[in-house]
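example protein:
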Amino acid sequence: MAIEEEKKFINLINEHQGLIHKISMMYEHDPDARNDLFQEIVLQLWKSFPSFRGEAKITTWMYRIALNTAISGFRKSTRHIKTEDLQEVHLNISEGAGDDREEDFQKLQWAIRQLSEIERAIIMLALEEVPYEEIAETIGITQNNVRVRMNRIREKLRTLMIPEHGT
């Protein structure tokens, strides 16, 4: 690849690294695994960069590759045993007068991690305010399917966010 293309790629990564970090955080809780996933996404973007034809928005293309990488065999080949931090599992235990917004955010993140990988991808894009048309293009489903799945995801999240009784 020519030096000009390398510079374009580096600028692209620098400009949109937040997108890659968000996907890495959404799919990996462990910091080391998250860093590995970030690097794997950048590698896959690098490999695919020469074939980017500009038919889709650059961010749509990046989301598609990043999500495919996060969901694909990379995770399966690096994951041995899935464990949950005890603090993560018992989010409804209050440690005194904490910041309710931070606690709600932690609960939401925990609930999102309970979703399937595709559901996480859809909700992450929706939280980024990506239009349904672009979500459909990124994920490879119809806009109507995105709407149906979003309704189901919202309902799952509501159910997961309801505090357990008696704790």
Notes: Residues 80-97 have pLDDT under 50 and may be disordered. The longest helix spans residues 3-27.
